[in-house]
Amino acid sequence: AVVSTQSTGEMCLTVNQFIRAERTGNYELHLQCTRAMAPIFAATGHHNYVKASRMMLQSSDDWKVQYPDMMRDFFAAGQHTVRYSDREWSGTWADMSIEEGLNRFAKTSGGVDEGGLRNEDGLEVWLHTGTHKAKVSEQMETVYDRMKKKKKKKKKKK
Prior knowledge:
Blueprint: H1 8-24, H2 27-43, H3 47-66, H4 68-75, E1 81-83, E2 91-93, H5 94-102, H6 104-107, H7 120-157
Helix pairs in contact: 1-2, 2-3
């Protein structure tokens, strides 16, 4: 069994700092907290989070070298969070935004989990959220493609 060396107080502080990082769009604090939370994930058996955290931290380190403009313009400007307003404390982490917004219909009364697709209104709402999910997916693919093209250009220059 993996044992975390952090005390309960340190773990709570890390979680509070992570919430601050997401709410304020502070990407460096986000990375610092993710590094601190990885042993907690391991100790509590959340192996998918350990793997995702490690991959995200490695990618972020690579991106700082490969895409310094993106890191400066996108992440340093707090764009790793979803914002519904311009208020300082209004950032929401992406997975929570998806859960709260796009997946809400499936998990509420009459939603997909409860046979909501059997009625016309439920089907219409589900179709509209599907379109939005497709747009988000398409935008993420565009960002990924741009990163790949930029990486290929750098390799050709060498």
